[in-house]
Specification:
The protein is of the alpha/beta class and 453 residues long. The chain has 14 helices and 14 strands. The chain has two domains: 140 residues, 3-Layer(aba) Sandwich (D-Maltodextrin-Binding Protein, domain 2); 234 residues, D-Maltodextrin-Binding Protein, domain 2. α2 links the parallel β1 and β2. It is globular and about 75 Å long.
């Protein structure tokens, strides 16, 4: 009997054990079904689209030409140059073409451009042009607008870290170039400032005290006979009066000639105010060194290189091989100016694609891809600026307060535009600024109108 009870108990335990195992299997099966139902054959599975292979155009051995009035070929002496040469070789293979850098002397450049474009066979696919030459070409329909050869996805229309849009011409976009950092400002001879105990211009700027009045004050302090021999041996300022005038007009919120509105700027009250200040520098305070004996001689541009001038308006490219320590601050704004514009760029140049170039979209695409090389600089133009300036504070001043504050002024693009005559009458012949502006304003407007026809 006891054995029967024991057997019955064992049998019940065995049944319960079988049930428990069977229930566990059901749970696992249900979980498996649940997971399987999350991706059933009847539902569409979302997947990432397959990347499309890049469409590469075979140019059949075509030569893509890029021109300037100097040799643009990377020298191959720096890491950046070597990377560019490697990129060029890569692109030549990729597109089955050759890239040629065309060097045409400056004096022959525009004649070659004009004759070849008019013949329908531009001498280069991408040309470097000064803005003063590009404006007439644009107005005559000899240049393509950016929209005619760039795409919405082009770097120039997005990040602009490879290629940037240059300033517009007559209200339209034509030009492009590499990112860089340029500087036009009041440079000053640190050696003279130290010798004469003059106030540091960067400190004046940081205090908000750098203006036209302070400029004259410092220039007067620097114009003196330091050895008491009866002759001035240090000067407050030097420069080509016409170029200085254009820059002062911009720093006072105006343009000598406005290509965007096709209006003369000589009669603008802001221009007249700037010209009064120019006259103050040259004829009232007499703080400018005139090396050639002619106040309006363009060669006065380089007078500062003698080392006896305290302040001078110049571009960064004029700094190599100086015999003195140099610093820089923005050109001081006039009463009507703003910090957003501190100078007029009268020598601006950029890259353009002439009308008549075959497959301009591909030509531009190749140029843009050429720029896609490892960036070894912390910012565009770092090596360039560091080769010109010996003080980090000067480079920081350029990057923070000067770069990007220039406007392109194109009065020299218009035939017989009378700004230089305006300057000569005022600075050399002591004529009234207001009367001289009235004298030349009609000629100035006629010059603008003539080019636009």
């Amino acid at each position: 009997m006891k054995q029967m009870k024991l057997f019955s108990m064992l049998l019940v335990c065995f049944v319960l054990l079988i049930s428990a195992c069977s229930g566990g299997n059901n749970v696992q099966t249900n979980e498996s079904v649940t997971k399987t139902e999350a991706v059933t054959p009847t539902e569409e599975v979302k997947t990432e689209p397959e990347p499309q292979p890049e469409e590469v155009v075979d140019l059949g051995g075509r030569v893509i030409k890029m021109s300037a009035w100097w040799d643009l070929t990377p020298a191959g002496t720096t890491a950046s140059d070597k990377a560019r040469l490697a990129k060029i070789a890569e692109l030549e293979k990729k597109y089955n073409m050759k890239i040629e850098f065309v060097n045409v002397p400056f004096g022959e450049y525009m004649d070659k451009f004009t004759t070849t474009v008019l013949a329908g066979e531009p001498f280069a696919d991408i040309v470097l042009l000064e803005y003063k030459s590009a404006l007439p070409a644009a107005l005559k329909g000899q240049l393509l607008e950016l929209s005619e050869f760039t795409k919405p996805e082009s770097n120039i229309n997005n990040e602009m870290n490879l290629v940037v849009k240059s300033a517009s011409l007559a209200g339209k976009e034509y030009a492009f170039d590499n990112p860089t950092t340029l500087a036009v400002g009041v440079h000053y001879n640190r050696d003279i400032f130290k010798k004469l105990g003059l106030p540091d211009l960067q400190e004046l700027y940081s205090k908000g005290e750098w203006n036209w009045e302070k400029f004259i004050e410092v220039a007067k302090l620097a114009t003196k006979d330091t050895d008491n021999n009866g002759k001035i041996d240090t000067y407050g300022f030097s420069g080509w009066a016409a170029q200085v005038g254009r820059i002062l007009v911009a720093a006072n919120g105006a343009k000598v000639a406005d290509d965007s509105t096709s209006k003369e700027g000589l009669s603008d009250p802001r221009t007249i105010e700037a010209m009064e200040f120019l006259n103050h520098i040259y004829n009232v305070e007499n703080v400018a060194k005139i090396k050639t004996g002619d106040k309006v001689n363009w060669e006065e541009t380089d007078t500062f290189k003698d080392g006896d001038v305290a302040m001078f308006i110049a571009s960064e490219w004029q700094m190599p091989d100086l015999t003195f320590d140099v610093g820089i601050v923005p050109i001081p704004n006039g009463p009507q100016g703003t910090a957003e514009v501190t100078y007029a760029n009268t020598a601006a140049a950029s890259r353009f694609i002439p009308k008549g170039v075959k497959d301009p979209e591909i030509v531009y695409q190749i140029f843009e891809e050429m720029q896609d090389v490892p960036q070894l600089e912390e910012y565009p133009g770092q090596d360039y600026l560091e080769s010109l300036y010996g003080h980090e504070e000067d480079i920081q001043m350029i990057r923070d307060h000067i770069y990007g504050t220039g406007i392109i002024v194109l009065d020299e693009a218009y035939p017989e535009y009378p700004f230089n005559s305006f300057v000569e009458d005022v600075i050399k012949n002591n004529a009234s600024v207001t009367a001289t502006a009235e004298k030349y304003k009609q000629q100035a407007q006629a010059s603008i109108d003539k080019l636009g026809k």
